[in-house]
Amino acid sequence: MRFMMLMYPDKTAEQGVVPDEKLIHVMDGPFTESKEIIGGYRIIQVKSKEEAVEWAKRVPSPDSAGEGMIELRQIFEMSDSGPEIEEQEGKLVKDIEAGLAKNAKR
Asked: Region 80-92: what's the mean pLDDT?
């Protein structure tokens, strides 16, 4: 099972309060303006929802974390849906490919 941990900062982040340097590494990111407030995330591979919760509990949280929170969302794969869904997906892909081939001949 895979889960996404979404990290939501507390109100102090909106006020420009920077976390302790020990909790973060200062580095350039993919964003042009490094002063933008964004939420972090992690994708974890676990055996159960309970294990995902345990991992979320281990995320460092300084005393100033206030109202910040972590949300867990399970990531579902097509293989989680069963053979019927995979079969329907295969038919849909074939129909799309046939339509593309037909349009390419025009």
From this structure: 80
**15 secondary structure, DSSP code:** T
Extents of the domains making up the chain: 2-75, 80-106
- The full 3-state SS of 33-102, as one line of letters, equals CCCCCCCEEEEEECCCHHHHHHHHHCCCCCHHHCCCEEEEEEECCHHHCCHHHHHHHHHHHHHHHHHHHH
Model-level pTM?
0.52
Phi/psi for 79 (5° steps) reads: -65, -20
Distance of alpha carbon 17 from alpha carbon 9, whole angstroms: 11
Predicted confidence band of residue 33 (pLDDT cuts 50, 70, 90) = low
